Every structure is written in C-alpha cells, then in structure tokens.
Amino acid sequence: MSSYRIQGGTGEWEVVIGLEVHAQVTSESKLFSGAATAFGAEPNTQVSLIDAAMPGMLPVPNKECIRQAVRTGMAINAQINKWSRFDRKNYFYADLPQGYQISQLYHPLVGEGSIEIEPEGAEPKVIGIERIHVEQDAGKLMHDQHPTRSYVDLNRSGVALMEIVSRPDMRSPAEAGAYVKKLRSILRYVGSCDGNMEQGSMRADVNVSVRKPGDAFGTRTETKNVNSIRFVMAAIEYEARRQVDLIEDGGTVVQETRLFDPDKGVTRSMRSKEDAHDYRYFPDPDLLPLELDDAFLEEARASLPELPDAKRKRYEEVLGISAYNADVLTADVETARWFEAMLAEGAQAKAASNWVMSELFGALNRLGKSISESPVSPKQAAELVGLVQDGTLSGSLAKQVFEVMLETGQDAGVIVEERGLKQTSDTGAIEAEIAKVMEANPDKVAEYRGGKDKLFGFFVGQTMRAMAGKANPAVVNDLLKKALDA
Amino acid sequence: MSVDLATVRKIAGLARIATSEAEAEALVPELNNILGWIEQLGEVDTDGVEPLAAVIPNHLRLRDDVVTDGGIRDAVLKNAPQAEHGFFAVPKVIE
C-alpha cells in the first residue's frame, strides 16, 4: 500500500488527523433530568426546569447513561475509571441556558483504549482512543423562521453525549472514514448509540494538520460538527490541501475552529472572538464525584454482546463463511441479527450467507428498504434456503419463489404447493420428455452423436422447457447423457 | 497571584457582567485583597494530600432511566422575554 500524500510545490506532505466524535447515548430520559429524549417532538415539550436552567434546580445523573458509556469503553478495551468527576465548561450561547455545559475535563469516565480499522485496500491499523467522557448536549437554534430572531428549542438540551476522542493516529481521509465506520458499528452493536448521523446522533469534530513526512506535528485546525462519513473525508481532503497551499505561499496555519460547507465542499473560518475558548473549567459543585463499584462494572461487562471483530472471526473460522461475506454480514448489527435469526431457524450457514448476500441484498436494494424492513422474515428465508438444500427447489425455481414471497408475503412451502413449482426428480417423466425431444430433433441427435458436443446444452434447454423448468437439472443431465450416448 | 485592570475587564466580559470604568478600577484592589487572603493557604504543606473533591462524605446518587418530567412547555416559556410558536425567540445569532 502506498501512503496518502499531498503533492505540493516543495514536495510531498503528510496529513495528520484526530477525531472527536460526539455520540448521543441511547436512553429514555436525559443525563441530569427526567425529560424525554425522543427525536422529532414538538419544540420545548421535552424540557424540564433543570434543562431550562431555572434557578435552584439540581442535576441527578441517569444511571443508564453512565452504564452505556462504561459498556462502550469496555467494547474498545479501554480503562474504566471507577472514580470520575463532572466539570463545568463555561461559555455563553443562545442554545445553552445554563451558561455552562456539564462535561468531564479532568477526570473522564473512560480512559485509554483503541479500535482496529480496515481502510479499503489497505492493511488493518490500530487507532488509539485517548478518552471517552460524558457530557450534556445543547439546545437547537433555528435561524430561518424569522427575519430578526433566532428560535430556540431546548428538547435536545441536557441529552447525554459521549465524546470519544481519538489520538492523532490517522493519516488519510480513507483511514478517518474507516475509523468513523468502525466506531459506528461498535456503538450500534453495544447499543449505546443508534449511530444515526442524519438525525445528528453522531457527529465529528475533525482535527487536521499537515507536515513534511518525519517532521513534528504542524498547527491543527478543528472543523466542527461534520455529520456524515463522506463529509468527514471531504473536509479532510479540502483542509489538508488548503493548509499545504497556505504554507507553501509563505503563510502560517492558524489554530482555529472552522465549519464545513457540504454544498461547496469547503471549510471556512468561524469568526469567533479570540477569547471564545477561555472556558474556565471547574468541578461542578452541584455534583459529587462519580464512584462505581465492582458489581456495576461486572454487570456492564457481562451485558456486552459479541462484537463485530469477534463475530467476523467466528463466521469465518467456525461457520466456514468466506472472508468477504463475513465482513459484510457483521459490519452492521441489524444484518448480523437477521442472519443469525435465519441460522436459529435451521438454515445452513454457508448457503444462508450466500443467499443473503445475493438474493436478499439484491431485493432490498431494488425495493429501497433496509434489512429491518425486509418483507420476508428470517424464518421464511430459512425455509426457502432449506427447500433448495433438500432438492425440492432448483436455484432458478428458488428465485421465482422468492419473488412471489416478496409480493405476497406467503411462505415458500405454500407457494411451491399452490403453484406447483416443486422440482421433480421423477425419472419416468423426465425420460418421457427426453424421448420426445430426441424424436422431434433427429438431425440434432445425429450431429451430436457425430461429435458436436456443444449441442448437449440445446437438449438440456429443450428438456427443461418441456418440464416447465421444474426438472432437477442434475437428473436431466444424467438421463440425457445416458439417452444420447446410448 | 494578582489581577490588573485588563484582567478584571476580561473576566467581566467573559461573565457578561457590565462594568463601568470606575467599577472596574475599584474591583482591582478588592479582588486582589480576596486573592491575597486565599493565598495564605499556600503556606500549608499539602505534599502527599489528595485534592479535596467534596466536603460531604456522601456518594453521588444515580437515578433510573425513566421519563418523569417534561411536557410543561408553558411553564418553561413563561419567563421568556419573547416566545413564538413554542420556541424561545432571541436576537438573531448566526455564525
């Protein structure tokens, strides 16, 4: 594999990337209040007086949010800090009624961990994760509803976030893309975040700097709130190029916060005041230190599911599924669940994996549906694959049956019975049709017997047509050979 | 540790506290008095002593993940200087 390099006038440049991913913790209620977290509610209907920062309100942490952050830490093999603390990050903005965000600067809940990524066409690589801390989300501002006013909706205010901070270990847009993809996959397996980037459940702050290979790190910029994997990669590509051109033209990179404009594919500087980053962190006096006992940690560990890396390995080594299929089937937890439900209904692993990869994915793609919206259930799929395995259906008959299943929702067995689609191995019936085909084509029979082997396919086709496609192809081949070679 | 006039102005700005020139000048010696008083703590030998995180011997209590609050939009918006269509309406803030 060749390293990702940016060509400049003075030679090659290397890009250095670190990501801070904000992941919304899956929970019913908020981090410090009992208001709901559901997406898409009417404005300000999921707001408690705590979230609106009314005087005298006291925060009480949600146990489930802490537990989910701990489980996430365990899933990335990170150190879990049994003693952590909440700090106030002070700044004023219209979406933050408290005037501070409750976060964890000095003593985060989760320490050092790592994940392994597999960028396309490159060797696997381990990316370090520095920490995961728990913090509150802010409210939402809308600027396009009124000529001189911004509207504030506090439904999101106080929702629990995990901030997952990577080491500056990535060296190309592809690596950064693979990192976000893998992180999202792990979060969805663990169930600590739904990973829905369109709804903002997961967003990334992208730190980028450039340097000549081997030099010390350059000055970095931070592009805020990038909300898709594609945009993360595009923002890095643009920002690295901009920095190289800037330096080569004699300028210097300023450490600053930038915004990504997805329509133009460019980043631009946020015109912030110079002291905007003077957050004056201090321990939140409303909250005692968070102390976790061994029983809590043990329960969290015991509740972890099989994670994507382990699952992929097991699919390959125990179930005998190809590396490519195992990779695709385990990448998303919903796919893996569906596939395993099929196996639980008795489907043979290899046949089931091939069927899901070609038939099911093909159909879902055509219908524009996700696997959780599949019109055919895992149980129905297992029955269909079973009918191919036991010889009741040929591959092409199975395709026909599947189409009917998609349309009607009927079970495979019922369709086979009602439409008479059963494959037959009835040698008497097949032999009778073969005799007719040979009788109708004496010239072809003579040619074949005279050495024109290619005509065998013609006889197979004619016989299958006469049998309305229902003859077992292996039996047809066998009987034809016997009849023609006689 | 001590503060000068520029620092006082900066702190006031960060805290969004309007301070006249005369008030800021008066605050410089006032704050320095407080800082000096607190600095006496520096005389105590704290080698090997863990920083104090809380003065009460309780543990942080956690609550169960159930929805027990919200659905009180009128109360939440009641004191807002301006509210429209269920939103707080504030002077336009756009980056």
Find the count of extended strands of chain A (DSSP E, 2+ residues): 16
Count the strands of chain B? 2
pLDDT < 50 runs, ≥5 residues of chain B: none
The biggest chain-chain interface is: A-B, 54 and 39 residues
Class by SSE composition of chain B: mainly alpha
Q: So how many helices of chain A? A: 15
Relative helix content of chain B: 25-40%
N/C terminus separation of chain B: 36 Å
- Structural class of the secondary elements of chain A? alpha+beta
Total count of domains of chain A: 3
Q: Radius of gyration of chain A in whole Å, from Cα?
A: 30 Å
- Describe the sheet with the most strands of chain A: 9 strands, mixed
> Strand portion of chain B, in percent?
5-15%
Fraction of residues in H or I helices of chain A: 25-40%
Strand arrangement within the widest β-sheet of chain B reads: 1-2
Distance between the termini of chain A: 58 Å
Principal-axes geometry of chain B comes out as flat
